[in-house]
Specification:
Deoxyribonuclease I, Chain A
């Protein structure tokens, strides 16, 4: 069943981030079809996925991208196979979109002890330019701090377009000890840490705000929330987080 939506208006761009845990649910059963159904439930226009590839061996992607497109209308930006012939993403990151024009996209490597990366894509939605960064940060605080500094360098754009950053930040703090402080300084429009922190982990009883959606100058987020459907509580060990993106004059 297709989840076709009309092209998003400037006040109706639904964005989301979802760590799909390689298709393994909170019941320890691998079922990528559940992930696709959760994405259909969300109905997003731009979605960042993490852990879409197996971590070892051939790093094969766990999702059927054609099935995903038929169910949701979402297509991946053109970075598939960067870490292996069968991989979907870049260090497990996959950025999906619909009803948008992709102007440029690149993969960057993030510093730290673990192999980590991010996707940076310049899109245009309904005439509005937007930079989207999809990332999965490391488990160690010092690595996350270095990675946040590296991502902060990607926020400034030549044409002044707003930046949307989404992903599993592996950070639960919201105060001065938060490793994401370099990003908050770079994204000057971020005024309230509460906008960045809704509980998403563990999926069955979420208490930690590991998954974040952050936006900078030129746009704002409204209705930031975890997606709490019955299926989402089982399909992965993380809940998806979603928000509505509104471009500002």
């Amino acid at each position: 069943m297709s989840a076709a939506r009309p092209a998003p208006s400037p006040s109706d761009v639904l964005v989301g981030s979802y760590n799909v845990h390689k298709g393994v649910g909170s019941d320890m059963r691998r079922d990528p079809d559940r992930i696709i159904e959760v994405l259909r439930e969300i109905g997003g226009d731009i979605v960042a996925l993490q852990e879409v590839d197996r971590r070892f061996g051939d790093r094969k992607g766990v999702l059927d991208l054609e099935q995903l497109n038929q169910a949701t209308g979402l297509s991946p930006v053109g970075l598939g196979g960067r870490l292996g012939r069968l991989a979907h993403g870049w260090h497990g990151n996959l950025l999906l979109f619909r009803n948008a024009e992709v102007e440029a996209v690149r993969a960057i490597t993030l510093p730290g002890l673990e192999p980590r990366g991010a996707i940076v894509a310049d899109l245009r939605l309904g005439g509005h330019p937007l930079r989207v960064i999809a990332a999965h940060l490391g488990l160690l605080h010092q690595s996350r701090l270095m990675q946040a500094r590296r991502l902060a360098a990607e926020i400034e754009t030549d044409d002044g377009r707003p930046t949307l950053l989404m992903g599993d930040m592996n950070e639960w703090r919201i105060g001065t000890n938060c490793s994401l402080m370099p990003l908050r300084k770079g994204l000057r429009a971020v005024k309230r840490s509460a906008e960045l922190s809704v509980p998403s982990f563990p999926a069955r009883m979420p208490v930690l705000p590991l998954d974040r959606i952050i936006v900078g100058d030129g746009a704002e987020l409204i209705e930031v929330s975890p997606h709490r459907s019955r299926l989402a509580r089982t399909a992965s060990d993380h809940l998806p987080v979603k928000a509505r993106l509104r471009f500002l004059p």
